[in-house]
Amino acid sequence: MTDPSAASLQLDAGPQRSRSLWGDAWRRLRTRPTVIASAVIIVVIVLIAIAPGLFSSRDAGFSDLTLANQGPSADAWFGYDNQGQDVYARAIYGTRASLLVGVFATLLTVLIGSFIGILAGYYGQFVDTLLSRLGDVFAGLPFLLGAIVILTTFNVPGSSPGGFTIISQVVLSIAVLTWPVAMRIMRGATLVAKQLDYVKAARGLGASTPRVIFRHLLPNTLAPVLVYATIALGAAIGAEATLAYLGIGVRAPVISWGVMISDARDYFRNTPHILLFPAAFVTVTVLAFVMLGDAVRDALDPKGR
């Protein structure tokens, strides 16, 4: 006969064995106020980017010079800029360009860095040395200097590239200068994962390199890279605003938070509201992604489980 106490122990142990890293992380994350707050902010920002018309009754092109430089009011929550444009409406419609730059720059950064990092960690020896030194070269480039060189090389003085073109250039510039961080994270995770018994067994049984990498290594190395990607997305949005402020990033007629900040810099003393509100959008969005990334990193930390 089966001992009831033993059966009870088996039933109790079953759920414990079935708990995964991501399941534990989700249980930790869903009860943290900072995670809930940052997630709500991110969802709202995404909704604004997808359907800005739902959040503003005015179009981004609205302009009335008789209203120029008026402060916040019930008619215009964020006031008007020096061209009589509604700052709130422009901030709402500028969300899409800023978020697109952040998302695609982060995606490209993670793809490039992860691909190079997993190759370096898997093959080791000469391949690892070569790719690591390549990453060191790019990591040693100052971000602003590198971005200025890349973007001014693409665009000669006086040129006026289209919106899609300049956004693509900014995305490429950010990715080219930031991928080494993702590469180092993926390389370190791969060096640990390839020592696992089932990875060694797969290699010993003659599994092809793509199968080992995509079937066995990649699922066990994604967590730290995804955490980095969450934080990097916020940093990329901040980088877009920085480059636009310097006049080498996204520019008119494209509307972004960085473009709005750049347009307002000469009028800050007399009309600070035209700079403070788009800057607040950047600050809150970047903070939300950084807070979420920090929380996910803590939740996935094995030492905290």
UniProtKB/TrEMBL annotation:
<feature type="transmembrane region" description="Helical">
    <location>
        <begin position="274"/>
        <end position="293"/>
    </location>
</feature>
<dbReference type="Pfam" id="PF12911">
    <property type="entry name" value="OppC_N"/>
</dbReference>
<feature type="transmembrane region" description="Helical">
    <location>
        <begin position="217"/>
        <end position="237"/>
    </location>
</feature>
<feature type="transmembrane region" description="Helical">
    <location>
        <begin position="99"/>
        <end position="122"/>
    </location>
</feature>
<dbReference type="GO" id="GO:0055085">
    <property type="term" value="P:transmembrane transport"/>
</dbReference>
<comment type="similarity">
    <text>Belongs to the binding-protein-dependent transport system permease family.</text>
</comment>
<keyword id="KW-0812">Transmembrane</keyword>
<dbReference type="InterPro" id="IPR035906">
    <property type="entry name" value="MetI-like_sf"/>
</dbReference>
<keyword id="KW-1003">Cell membrane</keyword>
<dbReference type="GO" id="GO:0005886">
    <property type="term" value="C:plasma membrane"/>
</dbReference>
<protein>
    <submittedName>
        <fullName>Oligopeptide transport system permease protein</fullName>
    </submittedName>
</protein>
<dbReference type="Pfam" id="PF00528">
    <property type="entry name" value="BPD_transp_1"/>
</dbReference>
<keyword id="KW-0472">Membrane</keyword>
<dbReference type="InterPro" id="IPR000515">
    <property type="entry name" value="MetI-like"/>
</dbReference>
<feature type="domain" description="ABC transmembrane type-1">
    <location>
        <begin position="95"/>
        <end position="293"/>
    </location>
</feature>
<keyword id="KW-0813">Transport</keyword>
<feature type="transmembrane region" description="Helical">
    <location>
        <begin position="166"/>
        <end position="186"/>
    </location>
</feature>
<dbReference type="InterPro" id="IPR025966">
    <property type="entry name" value="OppC_N"/>
</dbReference>
<keyword id="KW-1133">Transmembrane helix</keyword>
<feature type="transmembrane region" description="Helical">
    <location>
        <begin position="243"/>
        <end position="262"/>
    </location>
</feature>
<feature type="transmembrane region" description="Helical">
    <location>
        <begin position="134"/>
        <end position="154"/>
    </location>
</feature>
<dbReference type="InterPro" id="IPR050366">
    <property type="entry name" value="BP-dependent_transpt_permease"/>
</dbReference>
<feature type="transmembrane region" description="Helical">
    <location>
        <begin position="35"/>
        <end position="55"/>
    </location>
</feature>
